[in-house]
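Project outcomes to date are best conveyed with an example. Our students and postdoctoral researchers have been running inverse folding experiments weekly, and each run begins with a structure described purely in tokens. The record below, which covers 283 residues, was selected by the lab manager from last quarter's runs and is presented without edits.
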């Protein structure tokens, strides 16, 4: 249902790959709510995914750009403001990738060159996006910039390895640049800590299915799906959240504030009962 929450607003959405991605779902909701925008992803991601289909569906131009390259970002922002006919009201940074995770390297055995790539792609690119946006003065007053995070920035998820460090850095950048952009132009900067979500990036993490199911059992509302996260993102793009900035906002069905749930207790008790039964059989 359209409430025209973003009527007349223009922006850039980074990171849409396929219909499972949060950026993809955000583009659909933003279009429904009246926004105009440009879609962008790395050239290799454009070849791997279906972003051109999304562009046609949303009547949005697709511009390839490596978000770790300031030069690419400068070209992107220049082209985007020309195509959209004015400055931007919102930017979504939905970018994250760890070569170490893909190679299944444990945290104590990280390849440090790959570690730096993880930080550059997943966190420093957020700073670069805002740096270029500020230097080119492309953001309108009361604009909104959102990055996607995960609770591994605060809690240990062993198989998330260096991506946890990247998410911590991402959230720190949001606070620091949020202050800077807020003082300069009333532009707000926030991160959203989303439930584990079945996406291309998430699928590459060892044990993902296990902690997806665990979060589902821990969260009183269950895991928040991608399309619901998209609605939350759009609310942060809208004028209804003008004074929300420098925050890491949890969109996780209550996982982040639940100590233990009945479902998890039952799961543990069932496992213990099976273990006791096996011991009896052995005796």
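After processing, the design step wrote out the following sequence:
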């Amino acid at each position: 249902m359209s409430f025209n929450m973003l009527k007349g607003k223009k922006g850039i959405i980074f990171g849409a790959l396929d219909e499972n991605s949060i950026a993809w779902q955000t583009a659909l909701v933003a279009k429904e709510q009246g926004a105009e925008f440009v879609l962008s992803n790395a050239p290799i991601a454009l070849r791997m995914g279906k972003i051109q289909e999304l562009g046609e569906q949303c009547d949005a131009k697709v511009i390839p750009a490596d978000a770790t390259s300031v030069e690419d970002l400068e070209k992107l922002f220049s082209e985007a403001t020309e195509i959209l006919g004015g400055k931007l009201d919102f930017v979504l940074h939905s970018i994250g990738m760890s070569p170490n995770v893909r190679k299944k390297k444990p945290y104590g055995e990280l390849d440090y060159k790959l570690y730096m790539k993880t930080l550059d792609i997943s966190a420093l690119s957020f700073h670069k996006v805002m740096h270029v946006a500020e230097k080119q003065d492309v953001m309108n007053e009361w604009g909104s910039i959102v990055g996607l995070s995960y609770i591994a920035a605060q809690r240990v998820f062993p198989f998330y390895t260096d991506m946890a460090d990247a998410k911590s850095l991402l959230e720190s950048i949001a606070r620091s640049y949020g202050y800077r952009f807020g003082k300069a132009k009333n532009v707000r900067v926030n991160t959203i800590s989303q439930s584990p979500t079945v996406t291309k990036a998430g699928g590459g993490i060892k044990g993902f299915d296990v902690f997806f199911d665990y979060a589902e059992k821990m969260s009183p509302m269950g895991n928040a799906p991608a399309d619901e996260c998209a609605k939350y993102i759009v609310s942060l793009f809208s004028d209804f959240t003008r004074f929300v900035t420098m925050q890491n906002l949890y969109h996780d069905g209550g996982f982040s504030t639940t100590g233990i749930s009945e479902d998890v207790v039952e799961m543990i008790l069932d496992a213990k009962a099976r273990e006791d039964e096996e011991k009896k059989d052995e005796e």
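The chain is about 50% helix and 15% strand. The domain at 10-282 is CATH 3.40.50.720 (Rossmann fold). The training component of this project remains on track.
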